[in-house]
Write a structure and sequence with these properties.
alpha+beta, 2 helices, about 25% helix, about 15% strand
Length: about 60
């Protein structure tokens, strides 16, 4: 999987019916969000893999 597409497998991604799209469900304040947007990180520090079968595939 491409690094830039990690949001598709993130456990924090939830569907918002009001907005009719998926959003990140992290409890961040404005300072946290500003640091995240200003960061030069390649990956999101709040990413949690939602793939329950990842370990099983790795063991095969």
């Amino acid at each position: 999987m491409a690094e830039g597409n990690q949001c598709d497998t993130c456990n924090n991604l939830v569907y918002d019916e009001e907005m009719e799209e998926y959003v990140c469900d992290m409890d961040m304040d404005e300072d946290d969000y500003a640091r995240l947007m200003g960061s030069h990180r390649a990956t999101c520090p709040y990413y949690q893999n939602g793939d329950e079968y990842r370990v099983v595939r790795h063991q095969m």
